[in-house]
Fold this protein.
Amino acid sequence: MRLLIVEDDLEASRAMATGLSEKGHQCETAPDGEAGLRAARDGRFDVLVVDRMMPRMDGVTMVETLRSEGVQTPVLFLSALGEIHDRVRGLNAGGDDYLVKPYALAELQARVEALARRRELGSVQTRLKVGDLEMDLIAREVRRAGIEIDLQPREFQLLEFLMRHGGQSVTRTMLLEKVWEYHFDPQTNVIDVHISRLRAKIDKGFEKPMLQTVRGAGYRLEP
C-alpha cells in the first residue's frame, strides 16, 4: 500500500514512516500542507495520513482543496485537537477518519488499512490494463498486445495484484500477505518460482520486458 504522510514534526513523521514501512507499506512524506497537496494531486497514493495543524497550509485546507479538485484518496486526520467539533470539522472537510494524538502505532496501522479496504470495496474493477497488458477479471483472460496468455490460478492472482499496483514497487511481504495470505515468511522460494514463471509468460517474445525486479525492494510491473 502506498501512503503519504503529511506531518510537519519531522521526528513524528520519520517514526510513522519507519513503523508503517516495517509492516510492508511504501511511505512518502511531506513537511507541510502545500507539499502534501502537490504530492497528493495525482492520486497515486492509497491513503493520506494528514496532520491538522501545519505551517504554510493546514491539513483541513489541504484536504478541502483536494476534494474540490476531485481527488478522492481516503484521508486519515491526525491531531491533538480531540473535541467533538474538531473531529466534525475534519470529517466535514473531506476526511474519512480522525485519530487523536497521542496514538499507538498499531491503531494507526489498523485505521490506515481499514480505509484502504473500504476504498477497494467501493471501486469494483472488472478490467485491468497496464501498458499493452490487459486482464479481464470476469472472463479470467489475460492478453498482451492482443495475444492471449494462459495462466495458472496462482499466476493469475499474482499478476492481478501487480497490475493493481502497476508502476509501483511491491514488496515480498505484500505478495505473501495479499496473494498467498501468509502473515509470516515461510522461508521458501515460492515467490521467486512464480515470478519466474509469470515473467516467462508475459515477457517472452515481446520487445519490452514489463516485470521488473527492484533490487532491495521487490518487484514492479512497468507500463
